[in-house]
């Protein structure tokens, strides 16, 4: 049953000649995903293996010094 679901999911992706999406689905680790973006005409690109990074943020306001550094760097 799981193999059927994996095969069905892999078949929805545009083939990448560098690897088998079906095999990759079963090998994905924590923080990994198969992704496919749309090109400029709205067509899906080939599937790629990617790492999904957690957000790099913090809770709380930015200090005045940090704000000025960002403003200065963007000028």
Q: How would you describe this protein?
A:
The structure is a single chain. The protein starts with a helix and ends with a helix. The chain contains 3 helices and 2 strands; from the N terminus they run H-H-E-E-H. The mean pLDDT is 93. With 75 residues, the chain is of the alpha+beta class. It has one domain (2-74). Strands 1-2 form a two-stranded antiparallel sheet.
Number of domains: 1
Mean residue pLDDT: 93
- Radius of gyration, taken over Cα atoms and rounded to an integer in Å: 20 Å
Widest sheet, order of strands: 1-2
Task: Give helix % range.
Answer: 25-40%
**Element order: H for helix, E for strand:** HHEEH
User: Poorly predicted ranges (pLDDT <50, ≥5 residues)?
Assistant: none
- What percentage of the residues does DSSP assign to strands (E)? 5-15%
Characterize the main sheet: 2 strands, antiparallel
The span between the termini is 57 Å
Oligomeric description of these chains: single chain
Q: What sort of overall outline do the alpha carbons produce when their principal axes are compared?
A: elongated
What is the count of DSSP helices, taking H or I runs of 4+ residues?
3
Find the structural class using helix and strand composition: alpha+beta
Secondary structure tally: strands: 2
